[in-house]
UniProtKB/TrEMBL annotation:
This is DMT family transporter. Residues 5-138, 151-289 form the EamA domain. Its main location: membrane. It is a multi-pass membrane protein. The chain crosses the membrane at residues 33-53, 65-87, 93-112, 124-144, 150-168, 188-206, 218-240, 261-288.
Length: 291
């Protein structure tokens, strides 16, 4: 694997998982629908003016635009909304992380049918090892005495389904339509525009765009907009161009342990011995999938 790809993986993992920390900071000031709408409204505006000044703002046709908008709706809108709704329902973050970590297994199981890329025994072993590491890391942190609604516990599965479909769709497009490939800035513009449109009505009618515009919230939003909504997703799509869907999906196993480490830095959360052991197992699993 090239050094540039390794660095891209590091950037993606750090930026992507910082979104959970940003959400924990931001949710006390607004609702999940409004938070996501504001993020993608800002991203859409930024990309609009960027493409306009570069003379790259153009209509790419209904078929191409609709494909990218659907991927964006799934990878941005549904994935984030389900995760934030679960957190807003006071579901323990460990349970949310564990459920979302089902995504690599789902991608591995379906990628052969969708992208025709074969999953080797070596990769399957890596996926299983990584999942064991996630389970070990999270199991010792779950508070089984804390109750939440059934909806809260089931909604993260929507994130799994959405990001799995989006990843496979994006990879299939990369393999089949290389000649008609759009630049990454145009792709992200259509994806963020679709996310903004879909989140507008729930943010308006359910939460009335209620926001406490305090300095802390503003700083969090700037990070979520630039680093996570733009930076992390650009890194992910670049990785999908370079690696097969299973290898990219396996990186989501790093979510729970990396997020726990970030929570230790941001909120002073305790790091347990089982966290370190779990992280080590996850890394071994990911190394198996990358070879």
């Amino acid at each position: 694997m090239k050094n540039s790809t390794i660095w891209l993986i590091v950037v993606f993992v750090l930026l992507w998982n910082s979104g959970f920390i940003g959400a924990e900071y931001g949710l006390p000031y607004t609702g999940p629908f409004t938070l996501i709408f504001l993020r993608y409204f800002a991203v859409t505006v930024i990309l609009f003016f960027f493409l306009f000044t570069k003379k790259k703002l153009k209509w790419v046709g209904l078929k191409t635009a609709s494909q990218h908008m659907l991927i964006g709706f799934l990878a941005h809108g549904v994935w984030l909304t389900c995760a934030l709704l679960a957190l807003d329902q006071n579901v323990p973050a460990g349970i949310v992380a564990l459920l979302v970590a089902l995504q690599p297994m789902a991608t591995g199981a379906l990628s052969g049918y969708v992208t025709k890329e074969k999953i080797s025994l070596h990769q399957w072993l890596g996926l299983i090892i990584g999942f064991v590491g996630v389970v070990l890391t999270v199991a010792f942190r779950i508070d089984f005495n804390q109750s939440s609604s059934i909806f809260g516990y089931l909604i993260p599965l929507g994130s799994v389904i959405a990001i799995t479909i989006a990843t496979l769709m994006q990879r299939k497009m990369e393999l089949e339509n290389k000649k008609e490939k759009l630049p990454l800035d145009q792709v992200l513009f259509y994806q963020s525009f679709a996310t903004m449109l879909v989140l507008f009505l729930p943010a308006l009618y359910i939460e009335d765009f209620s926001v406490e515009w305090l300095p802390n919230f503003t700083l969090v939003m700037i990070w979520l907009i630039l680093a996570v909504s733009i930076g992390a997703y650009v890194a992910m799509w670049l990785l999908i161009e370079r690696l097969d869907a299973t290898r990219v999906a396996s990186l989501f196993y790093l979510g729970p342990p990396v997020t726990m480490f970030m929570a230790w830095l941001a909120f002073g959360d305790t790091i347990m011995l089982t966290d370190i052991i779990g992280i080590s197992i996850v890394i071994v699993g990911i190394l198996f999938t990358q070879n």
